[in-house]
Design brief:
Number of helices: 14
Largest sheet: 7 strands, mixed
Number of domains: 2
Strand content: 15-25%
Length: 481
């Protein structure tokens, strides 16, 4: 298959060597706006995976002893290169993921910001001196890198999510073998290229592709891998956590998605809530693990909220993400469209009101209209399973206790939101919501400086902030006399 001249060739990156598809199984990378193949993705062989692990093991011996000051200079240089290259790189992200070009540019800039911040934070992996109760004995607590890391990232944010993992691992003194989604491989390769051009030593970062189960099982079983970091579905996360426990009780960080509730109280600024939540809901076509989905609205303002939200959703301009005028692109693949159709049909059949959307659009690709379903019964599939698409659903509540019960009833706990003008209600809801991140009167819950992670079946551990650095460090206590 001929390569698209605007997309380029996809390769493996192992021990600072760029390796093409020759002699390897390949699969097509699909542009979700057209449904057409744009590149051939080479699958790493077992030998490729073994070589990547060996490179990460060898490089760890020297990278861990490289001063944090010097590691930081490389990461900051890579960040500068990503900023310089954003206009040439963003279209590739849009072509394989689908998000609009403005969001693609922003993703590269955020990834660069993550590298900058983490580079400096790696210089502050402080230990401490504990006052000793024994004369002549000094007690020290020091932080050390855990070792080579296997990272697995999804297709919805192919720049930001890998940037969190790669930057924190490298800044902490770890090395990494990372497998990005086979559907969106180009962005991780450009991050690796920026690091390589910035002077990253051979073997510190390795990028492999392939069938997810084959690659993950091979890497997790490898003796050289000491930590696993995964972002994706609950089912896959449970499987990988089991493999990590089986093969040496390896440390894991799991970010496994959610089903974010939004509580709209009777005293909320409804217009502000609509503006904020429409933007958050339909960003990246709703394919965001912290995307607001279940809108639990006080009965006195429910209809007003739904009317305004549906009008705003219907005005969103849909199109190819490469078109600067598009406000929402396609879903990432045909599976997502089929899921939207199944969930919406089920909700309507159970009595939900379809207020806008609810259908495919355009004549090619994986486009689905922004959708609003009102008064959705609790037993509808979409009220219990994360849609991961451009569908918002509403239900009513009459009391604070009822709202909290609806918000917390599912076994997920990644993000939650609430809108109220009462400081007392804001404090109470912040405490009552079972989630790793809570946004009150705003959606700014995922920033470079802040921890990102969930509770219950949404996973454990954090990425981002100083908490994200801790995941790649072990604690050693030294008693010295």
């Amino acid at each position: 298959m001929a390569q698209s001249p605007s997309y380029g060739e996809i390769k493996l990156f192992i021990d600072a060597e760029w390796i093409g598809a020759e002699g390897r199984v390949t699969e097509d990378v699909i542009n979700p706006a057209t449904g057409e193949a744009i590149a051939a993705l080479p699958h790493a062989t077992a030998e490729d995976l073994d070589r990547a692990v060996a490179a990460a093991e060898r490089a760890f011996k020297t990278w861990r002893t490289t001063p944090a000051y010097d590691r930081a200079k490389i990461l900051r240089k890579a960040a500068d290169l990503l900023r310089e290259r954003v206009e040439q790189l963003a279209p590739r992200l849009t072509m394989d993921q689908g998000k609009v070009i403005a969001e693609a540019r922003q993703e590269f800039l955020i990834a660069a910001d993550i590298f900058d911040w983490t580079a400096d934070e790696g210089r502050r992996a402080y230990g401490r001196v504990v006052p000793s109760r024994i004369p002549g004995v000094r007690w020290l607590v020091v932080k050390e890198p855990v070792g080579p890391v296997a990272g697995f990232t999804p297709w919805n944010f192919p720049g930001i999510i890998p940037a969190r993992k790669i930057s924190a691992a490298l800044a902490s003194g770890c090395t990494m073998v990372i497998k990005p989604s086979e559907e969106t491989p180009s962005t991780v390769l450009e991050i690796a290229r920026a690091l390589d051009d910035a002077g990253l030593p051979k073997g510190v970062l390795n990028v492999v592709h392939g069938r997810p189960s084959d690659v993950s099982e091979h890497l997790i079983a490898a003796d050289g891998i000491r930590k696993i970091t995964f972002t994706g579905s609950i089912a896959v996360g449970q499987h990988l956590a089991g493999l990590a426990a089986k093969h040496g009780v390896k440390r894991t960080t799991m970010e496994l998605g959610g089903h974010a509730p939004v509580l709209i109280f009777e005293d909320a600024d409804i217009d502000a809530a609509i503006r904020t939540m429409v933007q958050a809901k339909y960003r990246n076509s709703g394919q965001v693990c912290i995307s607001p989905t279940r809108f639990v609205v006080h009965e006195s303002v429910h209809d007003r909220f739904v009317d305004g939200f549906a009008r705003a959703a219907a005005e969103i301009r849909i199109g190819d993400g490469l078109d600067e005028l598009s406000q929402m692109g396609p879903l990432a693949n045909g599976r997502r469209v089929a899921t939207m159709e199944r969930m919406v049909a089920d909700a309507v059949e159970r009595g939900a009101e379809l207020r806008t959307g609810g259908e495919r659009t355009l004549n090619r690709g994986y486009f689905y209209r922004p959708t609003v379903l009102a008064n959705v019964p609790e037993d509808a599939i979409i009220m219990n399973e994360e849609p991961f698409g451009p569908v918002a659903v509403t239900a009513r509540f009459s009391s604070f206790e009822e709202a909290i019960e609806q918000a917390n009833r599912l076994p997920y706990g990644l993000a939650s939101y609430a809108f109220t003008s009462s400081s007392r209600t804001a404090a109470a809801v912040s405490e009552a919501l079972e989630a790793g991140m809570v946004g009150v009167n705003n959606a700014a819950i995922s920033m470079t400086e802040t921890p990102f992670g969930g509770v219950k079946q949404s996973g454990y551990g954090s990425e981002g902030g100083v908490e994200g650095m801790e995941a790649y460090l072990t604690t050693k206590m030294i008693s010295q006399s």
